[in-house]
Every structure is written in C-alpha cells, then in structure tokens.
Amino acid sequence: MNIIIAIIIFSIIILFHELGHFLLAKWNGIKVNEFCLGMGPTLIGFTKGETKYSVKLLPFGGACMMEGEDADSSDARSFNSKSVWARISVVAAGPVFNFIMAWIFALIVVGITGYDRPVLSGVTEGFPAEEAGLMAGDEIISMNGYRIHFYREVSSYSLFHPGEDVELVYKRGGERHKVKLTPKMDEESGREMLGLMGRPLDREKGNAGQVLVNSVYEVRYWIVNTIESLKMLVTGKVGVQDLSGPVGLVKIMGDTYDNSQSIGGTASAILSMVNFSIFLSANLGIMNLLPIPALDGGRLVFLLIEAVRRKRISPEKEGMVHFVGLMALMALMVFVMFNDIRNIF
C-alpha cells in the first residue's frame, strides 16, 4: 500500500509539472498533440479536441507533446512558430508549477504543524557557542549573512559548510548581537561543531499571515538544500553512488509512511507524505532548471541565446545536443536505478 501511495504522489507532482507546460502552451496558442502521464506504451487514452490524453505503462515521467517542438512543422500553431519569449514561458512553466505545488504542500504542513523557530534550547558545554556567551532563548537571525528562519536551517548550514568560521547574529531581549564562532572538533561524533542546541521538532503555530510567509520559507529551505547538495556532488564531497532515483525514493517514502503510521497513525503518515512532497516538488523544479540538454533548463539556455542574438540556433544542432543529453540522462538513470536496487537488496 505504501508503494502505491508513493507512486501516486510521484504521479501527481509530475502531472502538475506537465500541466504547467500544457496551460502555458494553450495560453500562447500552441497546439498540444498529447498530454500523458508515464512512459512507454499507452494503457488508456482518449482524444478531446486536438489533444490526446493518455496514461502510459511505466508510472514514472510524463510529457506535454507540442506540435513542432522537436521537429519541423508548417502548422501556424506549432511551438517554434511562436515568439521566443512565448516559448520561454512555456518551457519555464513546468519548474515554476513545481515550486507552486511545493508551496501548496507547505501551506498544509505549516498550517497544521506550525514551524520551528530558530531559538536555542541551550549550548553544549566547552564548545564555541558557550564560550561566546550564547544561551537558551537566544534567537538565531543569520549565519554568515544567510538569513535563518527555522532551527533546521542552523543544522543544515553547519552540514553544508563544515569547518567554516561563522559570523552569527542573534537576538536577545529585543537587541541584536554579533559573534564569530570557530567550529571545534567533537571527538565522540568526529564532527566539527559550534555547540548550538535547539528543538527542531517543537513547532509554533501562527496566524494566517505567518502561515503564508513561513510556507514560502519552507519551500526556500528545500530549494537551498537541493542546491547545496548539488554543489557537494559537483565538488566531489558526495559521489554519484550516493544519488537516489525513483526506486530509492519510493522505498524511502514507503519506510517513512510505515514509521509515521506506527507512531502517530494514518493521519500522521499522510502528513509525513505531504511533507515529503514539498521536498520532491521543489527538487524536481530545481533539477529541471539545470542547464543540461534535454531538460527544461537546457532548452531555456538555447532559447535565451536566441533571445540575445535574435536568431535561432540550427534546429538540427540543437536537436543533436538534446539527443546526446537525453542518452546521457538515460544512462545515469539506469545506473542510479541499479544502485537503488542494490542498496535495497
């Protein structure tokens, strides 16, 4: 059952991404030949107007297939017959819709559970935070200029910037103070620590305005985590073997669902899935914006170059670049899927 729930969540997120492309294509008068969920052979489908709507065999992925998107077309309503800015809006709409969906999920989670204010519950004895005079009740405002809104961000900042000196701004009694902290090695954990302690699981509920604002910060939190994780991958701090694809994520979601249900019941399990969906949707938005051929980001690069030079790059050359990129992505997906299956068994 938990695997089915995970697949349904994946499908909803992907469908919303493709809906972004679909709606902006229709808005700009572009003919959409097929709008589908999944990959491979068609299981079920029907045609309404000029568009075929279908569900494919493999439950991952989806597509909004527009007239003349990847081939020449003389149709006046083809993708490439439209202005470059119209095409940019259509391509960018998918990732933008992912961020919108992440915000909707965040509204639900923050509205129900609240948010974790970046307030210290204490400091660790013998570590820089204690030596600098920080204490329970201090509210963290920023770390090296990065604005902190949740206590989780304190932990994630330290995770992504290990060993770095931190210029920390905090508030006590309505007044702001600034200190510089140099991490100290903790022999027991083998990590360099500042000695800050908090309670990220303690949530504070706010009014409607606070829920709206903190929902945006929640999405920002996951976007930043995704970008910082990509930086670690590029710089070699984590390896490709540490990546998880759909198979691995489905297992993680399934385990999360089971654990949440055993602790808090079905309602808690569903809420944990909604929370996980914030990460998934924001992650999909960021990944699709990467300037990699065949992804939305790669297509946007070509469109932006066209907008600057006011001349389209040869469709044959662009198509070849996207084809090579697609083959490379497929190879990476096969590797990641194999790695996921190996880790499971």
Write a structural description.
This protein is 54% helix and 19% strand. The strands form 4 sheets. A 4-stranded antiparallel beta sheet has the order 5-4-6-7, with helices on one face. Strands 1-2 form a two-stranded antiparallel sheet. It contains 8 helices and 10 strands. Strand 8 and strand 9 form a beta hairpin. The chain starts with a helix and ends with a helix. Helix 5 (208-234) packs across helix 6 (246-289).
User: What's the average pLDDT?
Assistant: 87
Tally of DSSP β-strands: 10
What is the H/E string? Answer: HEEHEHEEHEEEEEHHHH
Strand proportion: 15-25%
Strand order of the biggest β-sheet? 5-4-6-7
Number of helices: 8
Which percent bin holds the helix content?
A: 40-55%
> Which regions contain 5 or more consecutive residues with pLDDT less than 50?
none
| Number of individual domains | 2
In whole angstroms, the N-to-C terminal distance is 20 Å
Which value, in Å, is the CA radius of gyration? Answer: 23 Å
| Main sheet specs | 4 strands, antiparallel
**Protein structure class:** alpha+beta
